[in-house]
Amino acid sequence: MIRATIAAVMMLTLSTAVAAAPCRDAKGHFVKCPPPAPAAAAGVTKDKSGRCHIASGPKKGQFTKC
């Protein structure tokens, strides 16, 4: 019982550390990091047609580059 508990805690700790590591897959191998999101993307929304609009501010609703 104690060995099973210790093993479970170790696996949880290892899996959490691997998942939190940037640019690694589930097995802990290095993978190519995804490109960072553009700063302007946070204030941009897409409509049902796929066109991008500014989400808030004085220019809310105006078309913008995606």
Summarize the structure.
The protein is an alpha+beta fold.
Number of helices: 1
Strand arrangement in the largest pleated sheet: 1-2
Secondary-structure element pattern, one letter each? HEE
Q: Could you list the spans in which at least 5 consecutive residues all have pLDDT below 50? A: none
* Proportion of beta-strand residues: 5-15%
Topology, number of strands: 2
Distance between the termini: 55 Å
Radius of gyration: 21 Å
Label the structural class: alpha+beta
Helices and strands in order, then pairings?
Blueprint: H1 2-20, E1 44-46, E2 52-54
Antiparallel strand pairs: 1-2
Description:
- The protein is α+β, with helices and mostly antiparallel strands and 66 residues long.
- Helix content is 29%, strand content 9%.
- It has one helix spanning 2-20, and strands at 44-46, 52-54.
- Strands 1-2 form a two-stranded antiparallel ribbon.
- Strand 1 (44-46) and strand 2 (52-54) form a beta hairpin.
- The mean pLDDT is 76.
Keywords:
alpha+beta; single chain; two-stranded antiparallel ribbon; about 70 residues
